[in-house]
Amino acid sequence: MENPKEIPAKQKLRPIFNSSLFFKMMFQNAEYTAIIVMDPDGTILDANYGFKKCFGYSKEMLVGSNFSTLFIDEDLEKNLPERELKGVMEKGSFNDENYLRMADGHATWVHGESIYIKDKDGQEFVLKVVQDINEEKVLENELKKVNKEQERIILDHETFIYTASHDLQAPINNIDGLVRALKETKGDSEFLLSMVERSIQRFRDKIKELSDIGREQEEARQRSDEVEFQEIYQDVLLDLENEVKRSGAEIVADFSKAPTVRITTRNLRSIIQNLLSNAVKYRDANREPQVKLKTAKTDDGFILLSVTDNGIGIAQEDKDKVFRMYERLQNDDNGTGVGMAIVKRMVNNMGGKIKLESQVGVGSVFQIYFPM
Question: Could you list the residue range(s) of the whole structural domain that residue 112 is in?
Answer without folding.
Answer: 4-132
